[in-house]
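The material for today's practical consists of a large collection of protein records. Read left to right, the backbone structure tokens trace the chain's path through space. An example says more than a description, so a record of this kind follows:
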Amino acid sequence: MKIVITAPSLDEHKNVSGISTIVRQIIEHGSHDFVHFKAGREDGEAATALWLAKQATLPVSFSAKLVSEKADLVHINTALTDLSIWRDLALSKAAKLAGKPIVLALHGGKYLVNPIENSRVAAAVESMLRSAKIVVVYSEFERQAVDERWKGLDIRVLANAIPLRDEPIAERNNEVPQIIFFGRLHESKGLSEMVKACKQLADEGVEFKLNCYGDGPMKDVFLADIKAAIGDRFYYGGVLKSSEKYSVLDKSDIFLLPSIYGEGLPMAILEAMAAGCVVIASEMASVASVIKDGVNGYMVEPRNTEQLVTRLRTTLADGSNWQNMREAAVDTVRNDFAISGYIEKLEAIYADVTK
């Protein structure tokens, strides 16, 4: 089966988004013939007038791709954010005009669970959703949230997944606890909260080092703010390739993701858990379908900096409890989030779409 699948750049040096990561894995592990269609900004790429003008031509080039590749179906990956909605609505309409069935996968976004106050945006989201034969979400929580607002959709739950590791949990012997963040450097990831929490802990004399990897529109501002806040307790290592992630995660104690909005089911959380990191992440959307608070990780309220500080302080002081949590995290990924099971379920969805 020939499948045209949308995602931002698949070049790991140009895009660190979870959508790009999962699409790379679909193409690598799936049994169908996939054609990638680039849709979405590269990290650090501004939404300039020229960029917006290029977006206007996307439906035309998308239609041409569907015809030239003789696609059997279209897999559109979108996030419910303003620019993504309008772009992927246009791509959905192009696919419908070409007579191609659509799988529409939702990857978070501020409107996934929050109300849409703008009536035009609300109408655009509904039109995009109803253009799809099947809508894919990360969890039962998301399925219910979407179904409550847009009745009558065929919604399937398919959580993100990663390739399993054969290696045992790496031993950590860090004299100073190592905290890691990697991903898109965007305000939605709670970068401001991270700066405030780390500064307070540093001012208290708590020992830790924060290591950051990634790129995005807030890179320069974040790097300046965090360096001013904690100085040489901070290290920035650029963008990690997939092949480099575990060499860094295996040396890290705590993975931090204090997102404030827009998360679905971050790939970075699954990768950190697979490496045996103690995860501290904001409770939102489908994160609770992975993390059981106090068992295989910790959850904090979004935007609650004091709670984040308390959780970090307590966790950093209680290294004796890390091993059990690490083992539980690895077991969670191994049992429920393996890429083999993901591909099997996705290909069943593809089969249903083309019936």
